[in-house]
Structure formats: structure tokens, C-alpha cells
Amino acid sequence: MNVEELSGLPPGAVSHFRDQGIEELYPPQAEAVEAGATEGDSLVAAVPTASGKTMIAALSMLSAVQRGGKALYIVPLRALASEKKAEFEAYEEFGVTAGVATGNYESTSDWLATKDIVVATSEKVDSLVRNGADWLSDLTCVVSDEVHLIDDRNRGPTLEVTLAKLRKLNPDLQTVALSATVGNADEIADWLDAELVETDWRPIDLRMGVHYGNALNFDDGSTREVPVEGSEKQEAALVRDILQEGGSSLVFVNSRRNAEAAARRLGKVASRELTPEEEDQLAELAEEIRDDSDTETSKDLADCVERGSAFHHAGLSSTQRSIVEDAFRDRLLKVISATPTLAAGVNTPARRVIVRDWRRFDPSAGGMAPLDVLEVHQMMGRAGRPGLDPYGEAVLLAKNHDESQELFDRYVWADPEPVRSKLAAEPALRTHVLATIASGFARTREGLLEFLEATLYASQSSEPGRLERVADDVLDYLERNDFIERSGGASDAGAGDGAFTSAADLAEQNDREEELEATSLGHTVSRLYLDPMSAAEIVHGLESADDRPTALGLYQLVSRTPDMYELYLRSGEDEKFGELYYEREAELLGDAPSEFEEERFEDWLAALKTGKLLEDWAEEDDEERITERYKIGPGDLRGKVDTAEWLLGAAESLAREIDSEWTVAVREARARVEHGVGDELLELVSVGGVGRKRARRLYEAGIEEPADLRNADKGVILNVLKGKKTAENILENAGREDPSMDEVEPASGDAGGTTGDSSAGDEPNANDAETAESADADESQSSLGDF
DNA sequence: CAGCCACTTGTCTAGACAGCATGTC
DNA sequence: CTAGACAAGTGGCTG
After folding, report:
1. Which residues form the Helicase ATP-binding domain (predicted)?
2. Which residue is nearest to nucleotide B21 (CA to C1')?
3. pLDDT digits over A392-430, tens only?
4. pLDDT (tens digit, 9 = 90+) per residue, A623-657?
5. Is the alpha carbon torsion for A757, A758, A759, A760 positive or negative?
């Protein structure tokens, strides 16, 4: 089918596609159009990665907009949201507007209401539903990308419930679900009342194979000699082999450490094939990476990048991740070794994909468990760059003939697993049942069960009554913690009034439906997007505090909620943090588990470790020191700080809600973690342009609050802040009447500025060691080193 | 005696969404 | 009940 034959699109859309070099639709796309994608019909497209799924979405959304509607595109990751938004923004050329809504992106609901296409993460959509964004009922088309993630234990239920809610909100909604090829696409289509388009067609050939010995055997029967020379590893031989043809490769491994070690080794292979220009550009990139963050991880990454290789995992900062991804797409980097982050993330195709590790540590399995077929296929699907490579190659590594055979059977010839709803897991239901009640989707127990009937879980359930049972447990839990109230139902029967209970009364009570209503606290929890269990923990912790909680107490409190990802204890650390615990026991909120409850006590200490990390950050320790001390990457640190900020913000709302007297303490702890400063700097840091480092330098020079910025000698300020432009900017933000720095010379400051007049001024460590304040910090560090 | 290797032992394990109100060095 | 890669340490061999 030619794009010219498409109808129902906004005028200009077809020529836009033609300008992009799209003439003929790919077969799956044509099939989708035939199935009614442009006519508002629902559809499930289960097709391989990179076979034009986005185009199917685009055609559906654009035709919906042309009919006067509004479309929503749901993605699983923030990074994908920005990628898609950039793609859809090009439609502005013919008058179709696009916006993005994620947790960290600027976005007011009013502003989104004006956009034709909105891109959002599933959690953000869920949150918008909970907060009653009224434009949601104007939606006529919703696209769910990577819908197979419904299978995910943690985040799948959110997507599932959100889709069910959107469809309930607007029964005529066109639902377009894009999925990898999975075992049961037909079930998903049934659930969504949608047509199914299923194919394994790909725009570029994908050859899958297994490397063993000196040979690479493909699924089509062909063989390629790839000798392993000397002591080199198989993946090194494979990377070198394809690099000599000018192709890049992607190596998937199962741990961060493996990714880093492999990148280091592969750097030797890649560096042999670099041109001088490439070396220069890579050196620049390496510099950029070192500038982004001053940590061991950054240095290691930069060292690799200089040689044309890189590692990629969640310990990298988001900046570093995009640097690596972009450079690989520009063919500057020859090889990336990555954990599975990359397989699910933004598009980074390579000529050859090497799945080195097909087993991953899984404590629940007690050891190494094989990866899902679906997951391996997702990785393999990254092979082949459209328009650049003649074909893509996906290779598994075997050590012997038996393993080679096993890999063919297990992954090459195998079909992916079916998608199974994980909704009946209690943690998932806890949060979604509360949200469903709070946002009025269900007002009775019956109504709740009816709503749950509309989920994929219900359509798949082989165990009748399971969902009902778990739902009842969850309702009990929510009621016990004052998140909901039940009234009028059979369970209340006779409990209160003690009056006579006749058979007739009983019958009547059983007939009457039990009503469910969220309490004010329950509404708050739902809107804040907290797991009810986190909220309960925080509420209980705040209520149990007799004295003003310390920052560490609050940090440990939020760190032990299920919304904080666990920082786990390494061997030996249980003792270290056990000591810290006895030192600072009094600061912790709520009841500590007994030491004899080993598992719970470990969790408690792990939360203390995370809390201590946050305290270190709020005591202005360097990023480098923290990442080294806790053996984490810069990305992990930022993630922790981010989450803590969010949770403490939520805790502040909860504190207000329950009239806690510690609201201010929570707010202060949050502000300290947000800016990474001690409380004496909180005022300074509220001035635009002043962060943790500048604030500390200003404070040391005797400028302790914004008022001082307005009155102090400009020479002193300039001396601290270096650049005139920066100084002017900050003075303006502080509200100084005459911010101009013209003709002002740096003056040496009163307190700590004596060594500060070096011209470069970029030594963040230099000024740390001077004042009483940092002496404190040092002390806490040495005590930390001891335990 | 230095340098290299082969082998042993101990350690450790993927990922990342959300509120709210505005802006790091 | 289940693994395996890496890094650091150890010991033996060679020149």
C-alpha cells in the first residue's frame, strides 16, 4: 500500500511522510490500516522491534485528530517519552500539536488539554486519572506502546488498570496496543475488543545464531568462520570480526561489573580500528563524561570511550547515558556492553548483537535463572540498522556443543512466553484498589469487583475467586489503616447498635450493597501516588515521634517504605550499620524490629544505610566520596536523592493531613536533600543560580542569607562567584537593586576566600577543607570510616 | 631475584515510575 | 537444592 492511498489523515500528513522518505507502507502497517487503524478501530499489533510500529500509532492518532479527537501515547520509560515527543513534534508542520507529560517534565494539565497528541508514561496517566484531569474524557484514541509489559510484576498492573480505566471513561475509545511478538497476542486482542495484526515480518533480515569454537552457526543453516585468537574472549572475536567490515556491535551481559569489564577489554579491540578524527572526537566525548560527574564510574567510562567502546547500565547518570547512546548511533562508538537497560530503552541498533550472558542471578530461583525468551528476543531485535546494514545478526555464545544445541532450542527456535497479568499480587492491588475507590470508579464492593472484571487478569484467570479473595484482604488492610471506610454492608451487620437482629433484618443487610468510600487521608495517598503501605509507614513513624525528628530519622523512615528501591547490605556491612544503629537509635522513628527477626532487622539496617547516604548528601559530601563509600554509580545516587525528595514531599502532605506537629521538620529535611546542603544554607540556596557549592562558598565568605547578597560588598561576592555574569545573575535573583558588576574587582573575602582567587576556580574540593563546618563533615566521615 | 602464569579464594549480582513548584556549576 | 565472572591473592616455574 502506498502512502498516497491513505485517507482520513490531516492534510499535509501524507506529504510529510513522503518528505521523510516513506513511500510504501510496510506490510504490517498496511495490515493495520486494513484492520481499521485510520477509521478508529481498536487493534493489537504484535510485530517485531523496528518494523514500523510507531507508524501504525501515528496513522491511528493522526486520523483520530483529523476527526476532531485527541490522542494519548503511553510509553513505559521517560526516555522513550522524550524520544516519541520529538518525533511527533514534527507534525506541527501540518498543524498537529504534541506535548509530553512525565513526572519530571514541566506540564500543567491545562497545557496538555490544548495538545492534539500527548505522550506520557503509564504512571503519569494513572496519576492524571487519579487527579481527575478532565481532558482525559476528550480522548478518542489511546496508544499503548510495549503493551507486553503488562507482564511486569511491578509496573504491569499500572498499565493494565490504566487502560481499563481509560476505556471505562470513554467506551468508544480506540485502543491501539503495540506489542513485541508474544505467545498470546490473541488474548490481549480479545481483552481489548481489538483486531489482531500479528507478523514476524522485519524490514531488515535478522539472522540469529550461536557462536561456539571458531564458528558462528546461523538459523538459516549458514556458517561463518569467526576464530578466537589466543586468550581473547568469544565476544572480542565477534566484535573484531564485524568491525573489520565496518559494523558496530552491542554486547548484552548480566551485571554492571561484567558490563564494565567487557567494555574495558573491548576497548582494546575497538581502538585498533579508529581513524585519527574519530580519536579526537572520542577524546572530546570522554572529557564531557568526566565533566558530568567526578566519580570513579565516570572516569572508567571516559577511559573506555577514548578507545571507542562504552558500557551502559543504570549506574550512569542520564546525561552519560544519552552521550553513549548518541555516540553509538553516530557510529563513533564501535561497541557498547550493556545490561538489559539498553534492550528496553531508546533505539540503539547495531549490525551485530551479542547476547553473552543468558542467565541472570535471581535470588528467588536460588541462583542463576535463564532469561525469558521474550527478553532475549528483545535484545536480539536490536540487530540491524534500517538503511545502514544489509542485515542484522544476533549471536548467542556457547562454550560447547551441548550448550550450542540448548541455545538453539531455548531461544533461536523458541516462541516467546505468553503475557500473564500480575494484577492479583497484593502490593499491586493495594494501590490500585485504593485509587479505584478514591477516584470514584467503584463505590461499592460489587462495583469494585465489576471493575476488576474488566481487566486482563479476569479474562485470564484460571482460578475463580482468587481476585475476589485478594481484593477482600486488601479492603481490610485499607480499612484498618484508615484509608477507606465501609458502611452499610453485611460485614458491619449488628456490630454497632446492639439492637435486635431478626432474620428479616439480616436478609435486608445482605441485599444492601456495602459502600466503600475513601477517607480524606485515603484521597491524599491516592493523589500523591504513594503505595498505601508507604503512607501507613510514614504516618505511623510521624505519629510515634515525641521529639522533633532529625533529618536522619526522616531519611531512614522514607527509605524503609516500599516506594524506595532497596540499597542492600554488602557482606560486613551489617556490622558497620549495626554499630551506627546503636549510636543513633534514638533518632529513628517507629519501632525497630528485634535483632532476632533477622530478615526484618536487615531491612531496617538497609534502610538506615540509605538514610545515612541521604544524610551524607545533605551534609555536603562530594558525589565522588558518596559513590565510593556506598559503591554505587552517579546515576544511583541521583536516583536515590530524587526518590527521597519525592517521598519527603509526600510525607509533608501526609504530615499536614494528620495535623502532625513535625510538618516543618519534614519540609526542611526535604529541602536539604533536594539541594544537598546543611540547614544553615537553605535560605541561600533558594536564590536562583545558587546551588550547594556556591552557597557553601558564599557562606564561608560571610554571606549567610539572601539579604547579605543584597548588601554585601560586590568585590567579596565576585571573589566567591568568579564569573561576573554569574554574579550579576545571582544578585538580580536575590533582588539587589544594582546587580551590575561592571568595574568591580574581586576582593579577598573575610572568612575563607584567601585561597579562593585562583583563576580557574573549578576545584570543588579546594575550599571544602577550610571552615568549621567542613571540619564537622570530616569528623563524621572519619567516624564513618571506622565502623 | 624479578616476572609471569596458573590456580585458588572471596565477593557479588538488572531495572527506575510517581507529587509539587520552578530552575545546578 | 541450583552459577559464574571478576579481582585479588598465592605459589610455582622460568630466565
Report:
1. 34-200
2. A106
3. 999 999 988 889 999 999 999 999 999 999 999 888 999
4. 888 998 898 999 999 999 999 999 999 999 999 99
5. negative
- With a 7 Å cutoff on the CB, does A363 touch strand C? no
A509 labeled part of a ligand binding site: no
Q: Is the CB of A402 under 7 A from strand C?
A: no
Question: C-alpha distances in angstroms, A598 versus A185, A569, A587, A606?
Answer: 44, 13, 21, 12
Q: What cell was used for A462?
A: 484460571
Taken in order of first residue, the domains within chain A and their CATH numbers are: 3-198 (3.40.50.300), 205-412 (3.40.50.300), 426-491+503-523 (1.10.10.10), 530-676 (1.10.3380.30), 687-786 (no CATH)
pLDDT given at position A524: 95
Helix (H) or strand (E) holding A174: strand A174-179
**For A77 and B16, how far is CA from C1' in angstroms?**
9
C-alpha cell belonging to residue A628: 565510593
Cell of A32: 493495520
Residue A286 · residue A366 · CB < 8 Å = no
**pLDDT tens figures, A114-134:** 999 999 999 999 999 999 888
**Polymer length in residues for chain A:** 787
Determine the average pLDDT of the residues in A43-67: 93
Residue A508: the pLDDT is 53
Residue spans of beta strands (DSSP E) within A413-458: none
Contact of A675 with A681, CB cutoff 8 Å: yes
Distance CA A177, CA A146 (A): 8
**How far is Cα A787 from Cα A771, in angstroms, rounded to an integer?**
25
List the nucleotides on chain C closer than 7 A to a protein CB: 1-7
Whether A367 CB is under 7 Å from strand C:
yes
Q: Which of A558, A542, A694 is nearest to A613 (CA)?
A: A558
Separation of alpha carbons A127 and A18, rounded Å: 38
Q: How far apart are CA A606 and CA A640, in angstroms?
A: 13
Would you list the DSSP string of A206-229? EEEEEEETTEEEETTS-EEE-PPP
Alpha-carbon distances of A25 from A90, A350, A687, rounded to whole Å: 19, 24, 54
Round and report the angstrom distance from CA (A555) to C1' (B18).
18
Contacts of A316 (CB under 8 A, 6+ apart): A297, A301, A324, A633, A634, A635
Nucleic acid strand C within 7 Å of A260 CB: yes
State residue A464 phi and psi, 5-degree precision: -60, 140
Ordered DSSP codes for A288-342: HHHHH--SHHHHHHHHHHTTTEEEE-TTS-HHHHHHHHHHHHTT-S-EEEE-THH
DSSP state, residue A408: I
The residue that leads in pLDDT, A527 or A567, is A527
Residue nearest to nucleotide B20 (CA to C1'): A649
Average pLDDT over residues A144-162: 94
Whether A210 contacts A414, CB under 8 Å: no
Helix (H) or strand (E) run with residue A141 in it:
strand A141-144
A236 CA – B18 C1', rounded, Å: 41
A471 contact partners, CB below 8 Å, separation of at least 6: A429, A433, A445, A448, A449, A452
Q: Is A258 within 7 A of strand C by CB distance? A: yes
CA of A634 to C1' of B20 (A): 25
- Name the amino acid, one letter, at A452: L
| Tens of pLDDT, residues A505-534 | 555 555 567 899 999 999 999 999 999 999
Query: Which nucleotide across the nucleic acid strands is nearest to A364, CA versus C1'?
Result: C2
Distance of CA A96 to the CA centre of its chain: 28
How far is Cα A199 from Cα A512, in angstroms, rounded to an integer? 50
Nucleotides of B under 7 A from a protein CB: 11-25
CA→C1' distance for A233 and C8 (Å): 21
Grid cell at residue A6: 491513505
* A337 CB less than 7 Å from any atom of strand C: no
